[in-house]
Design brief:
With about 180 residues, the chain is mostly beta strands. The chain contains 1 helix and 10 strands; from the N terminus they run E-E-E-E-E-E-E-E-E-E-H.
């Protein structure tokens, strides 16, 4: 990291969608962030943060959670304090999963979904899941620790057809280019 390039210190992931039409089961999307060790950046996650958890050290946490998309503006928001994350972690993958309890759904059945990742006021990535309409879950990007110790972000939406538990275990695997 030189004096002209700043590393990402703290990022926010925001997710929104419209509620299901009247008479249909609610649509529930969840943000998930998984951490990976420097010694195994594409292996099993050390831990995952989602709707009912937070990181052991408090550096990754969910600020807002929705089970039906009836929030105002962004329905779910997660904060990642990357500059406080222990140096043994080299990668954090962020994804979105559609809960399948009330009804089986893919992104094509979610009304007006959107995701935004930003640092402060700088938008790092935005997407509407239009490229993964048949998926039940998707990774939306990864933060990686650079040689200088600072964090960089690589956007990329990749769809998965897994249940939430399986998705959490495989979301950090290398994706084909």
């Amino acid at each position: 990291m030189n004096g002209l390039n700043k590393a990402i210190r703290k990022a926010e992931v925001a997710l929104k969608w419209d509620p299901s039409p009247a008479g249909e089961p609610p649509t529930d999307l969840d943000i998930i962030a998984a951490t990976y060790l420097a010694s195994d950046p594409y292996g099993e996650p050390v831990y995952a943060v989602h709707f009912d958890s937070r990181s052991p050290d408090g550096t990754i946490y969910l600020n807002r959670d929705s089970k039906d998309g009836k929030g105002f503006g962004w329905d779910e928001v997660m904060t990642l304090e990357l500059d406080r994350l222990d140096s043994r972690y080299a990668r954090v993958v962020v994804g979105v999963v559609i809960q399948q309890r009330a009804a089986e759904r893919t992104f094509v059945a979610v009304r007006n979904p959107g995701v935004r990742i930003r640092e402060g006021y700088t938008v790092l990535a935005e997407d509407d899941f239009g490229g993964v309409l048949g998926a039940t879950a998707a990774t939306i990007g990864a933060f990686t620790r650079e040689g200088s110790g600072g964090w960089a972000f690589r956007a990329g939406v990749h769809g998965f057809a897994d249940d939430p538990a399986t998705f959490t275990q495989v979301m950090g695997r290398a994706q084909p280019s």
